[in-house]
């Protein structure tokens, strides 16, 4: 059924499609993880961390929409279903239950760090294949690295 | 660690906690499913369905936050991680790939129907255990049944 | 044509449908009556009463939409046509022509009182049949009783 | 009681008063009809038609207020009661029950057409009697004819 | 110096210029009178009248700007200086000092009535000379007559 | 003087009136206590606690208005005077002077806990007497329990 | 514990501290009294008085925050607890129960008058001790005297 | 295909259709010319002229939409394609390249003057044919003549 | 009739009343003069001066309301009628007709300068009589001196 | 006259200037074509397509401003006149008259596709010549490809 | 060149000018210091301190504009250049590099304390020289002392 | 103390850090210079230049925050202290005292030109070292070059 003739040659398209699909899964999981900690954090820094986490959720949700619609725009069906996310995310699974504020901050430092590493690989991978998608990965990386700094500073 | 003395007796708390955790998983998955179809729908009704789905996403995200924070308020740690959602959702998994607009509407009719049935059970289950939580389930049901009507009418 | 399988058993549905249809007619007529007096009131309290009436109009219009769409959500076609309203409203017909401010306030005290009585019957009637619809009637009653107080106080 | 010395001679006032009262009844009924269809429409174009109808409701409600207050400003008591509307509207009564989207659009094409014809007669009738009221009828006609086009185009 | 070649023939321009200059003076004075009463009104209806008067001020200021800039647009220098207003206004001078609320309302009924009479003459005078200016006078008259009704009704 | 015929039978009214009056006193005092601590808190968590307390103030002020106006709507004069609050509040008096941030959080945990216990009794007491008032108590309890969680988590 | 080295010499600080603490108690009680009358007023001027009172509440709440935080800024712990207010307010206690609109206005004239007298004494007392605090008292007095005029005019 | 039965007789419709199509072309070109000068103006008055031109663009774009949709509402297909505009505009072509601020103002004086002349002819032409369309031309003329004054005054 | 017992002794009240009444007349005339020039200015700086003048109008209107209501608050009836303004303003009358931009700026430099001189005298005159009124004169002076600088700079 | 010393060497400037001028013409025509179809579309999908087209207009107008001002910033006079657009656009001319909704969608798919192809060439052409301009082309391409997807999906 | 005849005698002007120039330098440096710490703070209180510092930046920037424009209004050229600030600020230089949250708070306590001391001297110095400038220094002092309290409380 | 493991290799990090620190100093000084001229400009173009300069201030402040936080995100402490800015800025020092409008524009043309040259060097220097930082420099350059054009055009 429905086939879009992509503006990209097949090889480039394959590269870009993988990068977008990977980013989609990472960003959805990042939003889920940040919400999970948002609800479960306890400790004297509760309020600061609770609020800071919702800003990560906003960033991750906004960019997951961007990359999924970018995939559609290139004629590639995006996959953001729960099972796909559970199986393919680059974010390490977090433990269930309450989490102390310092550990919560550490969890985010790790989660953001993991996603940033993969996102920078996508920046490199798509440079010649599609500068339009690359520009999106660059801007996503900028936002994630800003969050990364803030959580590191909060544990500094 | 961190223990809240709940305002509810243990038996009531167990009932309410299960209802809230179940609702959390259903609502997170509903949001993921609605986004998945939002990105993959094609056909002459594309724009209407695409926009209508984002309203379901807004409803589901808002209420998932409500029920998770309600669990925390009762001293019960909520679990909204990807693997938990993938394993426990009441929404039937959707197929990957593009979906025709009529099928997209049908998918939502089914997904909303399934969540509504379970949510009405939670309304009944929590009536005596905790009228505060029950009131939340009632309002969630009202919102979901309104969306349910609109998707049914759109395939009517 | 178009048939929705309602989440309610038939007997409950009949009860709820009658309550919703009755509320719809009452609320549309309440809005029409409040507008009629809004345009025809005269006297030293003109401005206060004129403005106060538009707040009743806003409440009545908002809730008439709520109950009509609730009927649709249960698979019951709502009827808000002029002839239906003229025939079935629980609000006593108001006289034509200019109305003195004190009489205008009295008219609203009566109209609101009549609708409140019927709305409280609907709260009772739908308690077991459909707690979702009942919750709507409870909130409508709260709003109407607040208006009722204000008009009574204004003639106190 | 309360008598305003109108800025218009008696004959002109009679003409203008009839035009305003007729417009009031038509516009109130147009709002009721548009809401009725807004709640009862079904079919693949449900969402578009449902939203488009609320724009007609907004137009009709805004202008019904304008013409009623214009009547009051000329010293003529406006009559917008349910029974008056049911008896005197220029809009053909719509059938009860669900309505398919194409029929819904057709219903509005007819209803708007009927009101426009009468509104244009009011433009002509009031030209010399009261250019202020005429200007209102001209602007109402402009708005209604824009809606009329959009519904015709949607069935074109 | 600075001369604009007007789009109107000389005779028409003279007619329109007089109408605009007259309206400018009336509207500036109406704003001053309404503010004067706004500050000096006393009595149980103080708050209602005080607020209602500021709405007249808003209307009068907005339209004085409109007619002055319309004069400029036709190449006619508008004159809204205090001495010109004091000498040429169609509004009867109000007495100094505090004013009871009922008298305040009566003052406005008179002031608005006087300006409306002159504004309707301007509507008639400019019909053939300049339909653009006439349309402005028609809209100003509509607004003033609405205020006029409200103050009459408040003393009704 | 001024007597409202209440929609409730006398016995029910007595129950509901006591619940509303009790809630009014509790909520006014909760707002005063939260402001007192808002001004006197010191320590490294100053800013978080200072801001969090103003959200409690907003909640308590909003709901004190709701319950007082609900009493009026039932024909019962509400009493929110300083002496009444000082004498009848369910919140334990707080000490004068500066308060360390951890103690400030503890003070709120206690104050909210005390009000919640009494509010849940009001939910139970009014269930059959007046579902409209009960619904208000349910929503107030939901809001207070959310604040209660956040302060407990902040000391967790 | 926590000691701020105040920018003011001890004698000046004592003067300013007493003025600020006194203003705090007066303003909190003014807000409580205005709310009490807001809920209990009846009579034909109900709506005007009801709304006007909420503007007093807004003024009193805003300024009570200003003076309390000013005390903290000078290193003086503010005391706004219910018992302190009940014992030390300069506002005469109001009677319980419903109050006719004219009496309601009179109550506010008296309450505002009492607070203004004391506030003007604070303006004088702090002139040399602390021009920053004095400036706050001047602005509070300006706002209160504007309200005072409006209530006097309403009973004029 | 798609045929609307116009509310106007054929002769009137022909007159009105020509006027609307002519206005559409003039207004689109006016917007393009104003943007062209907006980008190319230089000189000490750069910023004022640059900003003033964007207000002309807003006016021209808004009214081009109005007249095009008015044509559609009368059943006449509007034509606003680039080639049609290039061939039929009443605005004299402007030279390419940078333009000094005084010349830029002069260009707009000429362009607005040309469109106004034609727009006034349309006001006259449609007076009996369609007062609804005429009213639009009157309001467009009012806006254009205001801009015309401002550019003339800026070179005065 | 209506007499307010002023918080000021008679001699002080007389001083303050004269200052307020004088300020009222100056500020109303300043607004009229600024509008007059706003409409009549021509020349290359038209747009800048035209806009800058409306900011003076806003300042003058806002502060005329402040001083008039301050007079009322002290029990002194303010007089802002056209004849009073024409007779008593401290602003030199401006010539009729178009005014070149440089002259327009000069007119405002002079008008603002004249009002500032008188306003500074009022600051001095009311220092001991009423610090509340003095504070208003200080803030008005600050605003006027800022405008004064901007017009001087524009002719610098 | 007016010469800007560009930050780019001559050869690079020539490349970038051609790209910007070409993009300007394409984007202006895209806006004109989208508006043309916006006014002329008919059929059951009328409302969706009508609204979707205005979003293309917004995108095209915003970016045409961006590229024209970028050209000016590099010292190159942009040319967006009607004749230039009619002669040089990369968008195929559309037929006059009404257009069925499916054809309307197809027209946009083609128009967007043509502009995207040329815009991607500009991305490639300016990579080394001017990364600042290239970044603008990348972002324009991203927006256009998103619209392209949505119209393709709507005909999918 | 450009000379403003100041409203102040020379001796007063000299006093006020020095005070304004000194305040300008202090406030610009305060904004730079607050931003420096905003970027370099680390530690568990990172987020609270980071946000709190931006509120100081807003205050300092707003008031630096106020005092600079006040100087201009008195005919005195303000000097806010980097070298002037570096040479003349009353704020002690901060060390380069990361700063722990507690030290960051301490830095602000010191910086605000230093500026407040000097600002209070300016309040005293300008009392007779220029009450308008003094009033600005009073309000700046109020704002700074509020920030000072909050940072002291945060280290309390 | 506090060390972030940067995502960049050491050599790249050194390059990027120097570029960011240089940009920070340039942008802070650009904001200070633009404010300095904003306060000191005189002449007939005063208002235009005064307003235009504040837009440069907004741009420079926004981007100085961006680059400083980018440095922090890479683990490099940013230095934006007054002495650092005074010593290292790429903007030529401006003379003290009043500045004629034409010279003010020229000053900005020079200042922007100097910063743009250095910013383009940073775009080139960071291309391979860090595309994320490069993208920020590209966007900063785009904004600065737009301002540069506008000031050049204003002196053209």
UniProtKB/TrEMBL annotation, chains A, B, C, D, E, F, G, H, I, J, K, L:
- Give the signal peptide as a residue range, or say none if absent: none
Any idea where the Ferritin/DPS domain is? 18-153
Domain of life, per lineage: Bacteria
Note the CDD domains from the entry. Answer: DPS
Q: Which segments of the protein form a coiled coil according to its record?
A: none
Q: Which InterPro entries match?
A: DPS_DNA-bd, DPS_DNA-bd_CS, Ferritin-like, Ferritin-like_SF, Ferritin_DPS_dom
Q: Which GO terms describe its molecular function?
A: ferric iron binding; oxidoreductase activity, acting on metal ions
Q: What protein family is recorded? A: Belongs to the Dps family.
Q: Which PANTHER family match?
A: DNA PROTECTION DURING STARVATION PROTEIN 1, GENERAL STRESS PROTEIN 20U
Q: What is this protein called?
A: DNA starvation/stationary phase protection protein
Q: Upper taxonomic classification of the species?
A: Bacteria, Bacillati, Actinomycetota, Actinomycetes, Kitasatosporales
């Amino acid at each position: 059924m429905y086939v879009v003739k992509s503006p990209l040659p097949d090889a480039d398209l394959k590269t870009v499609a993988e990068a977008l699909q990977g980013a989609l899964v990472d960003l959805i999981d990042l939003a889920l993880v940040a919400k999970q900690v948002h609800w479960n954090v306890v400790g004297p820094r509760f309020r600061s961390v609770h609020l800071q986490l919702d800003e990560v959720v906003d960033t991750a949700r906004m960019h997951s929409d961007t990359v999924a619609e970018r995939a559609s725009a290139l004629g590639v069906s995006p996959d953001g279903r729960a099972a796909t996310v559970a199986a393919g995310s680059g974010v390490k699974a977090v433990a269930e239950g309450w989490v102390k504020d310092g550990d919560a901050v550490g969890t985010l430092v790790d989660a953001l760090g993991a996603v940033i590493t993969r996102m920078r690989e996508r920046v490199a991978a798509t440079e010649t294949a599609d500068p339009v998608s690359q520009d999106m990965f660059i801007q996503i990386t900028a936002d994630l690295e800003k969050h990364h700094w803030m959580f590191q500073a909060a544990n500094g």
